[in-house]
Amino acid sequence: MTLRVTQYGEEVLRQPGRRVEVFNGALRELAQSMRATMRVEEGIGLAAQQVGEALHFCVVDLGPAAREEGEVEMDGRPVPASLLQPLYLANATVEPEPAGEIAAEEGCLSFPGVRGEVPRPPRIRVSYQDLDGAPHTLRCAGLLARCIQHEVDHCNGVLFIDRMDPAERTALRPALRKLEKKARRSALREPSA
Fold this sequence. Notes:
Blueprint: H1 25-40, E1 45-47, E2 57-60, E3 71-74, E4 77-80, E5 87-96, E6 102-107, E7 115-120, E8 123-129, E9 135-141, H2 142-155, H3 166-171, H4 173-189
């Protein structure tokens, strides 16, 4: 089942996610629906906030691009990144590895038509729990590291525009205002429960 992707201007995107405490069928169902939604929307990552849930949970699936990532280190062992796709990350924390930051263009399913340069550490260490609640540590770089950082930011209520250079964000202001207005109009049309 696919889910509706929340848009910039909706409050849930700014809400830090509550910790995942229960690893059960409901979480697996959410995970599968998020992955299906991400594929339909042609994304490579999706956080729970982007489907209306303030939960510290996200999915990352680079698709064919994962083959280009080479090996990553999972729980201390080298593994081809493509074997880890999709990655379901609950309660993830990201630690940058010392290497400075590299700016690259990012977009977001919750910001249709908006793209911009975002500086991020190129190599990270991620601690997280999988769909069964088992803890893991992943060390990665490249697109996988960037995507995980983007989605974990969502889980913490941080948006990619928050990490942009102020001048770049200012240039995007007209597009962001349009998205906010659209979100307000949608909220007014939705029937209250």
